[in-house]
Design goal:
The chain contains nine helices and no strands. By secondary structure, the protein is an all-alpha fold.
Length: about 190
Amino acid sequence: MELGERIATLREERALTQVELAKAARISASTLSQIESGKVPRPHVGTIRKIARALGIEPAALRSIEEPALPKAKTPLPDITQERRHWKEEAEQFISEHEPFLHDDSLTEVASGELVRRANIRMKEVHQNFSEARQNEDFSLVEFNDLALAFEQLIAFTKAAVDNHKQRFGAPEVWEELERVMSNAEKSYGTVS
């Protein structure tokens, strides 16, 4: 099933119109229409994330029907403009759901790579919110600290997932690039610690 077809199916399962989903995803209805019709077969990854959030699923679920046997995320990370939530608790929940897989020697290379990818996506989303929160004056100190702790926890978890994958399956350039991204995220975090 193509990406556009998958989005249309999920949208219809939720009884949403294109306009309703587009509004929830904060994209134009014409963009959504073009994606669903296949006129835009490879939309920007940010657009995929917005659509996935609006549908209440992980972005990976839009790209393929078959995923490794990792648990589905129960709580998507919030967008900074949405109602304030408990970032620290959500990061802890994500980690507790996925941490057993770090120690699972039967995990295949594909599933291990998927674990790293999910952790990286989650870390990047929190990093984006963290960066925006640093510039948003109406964040309380408690909210900002929760976000900072979530970011710190996800950096550590992502690093552990990458290290585990490297030890078991080697470290191609993709993992080296991911480590560079994580290093930049740590530096960004370190500027306010």
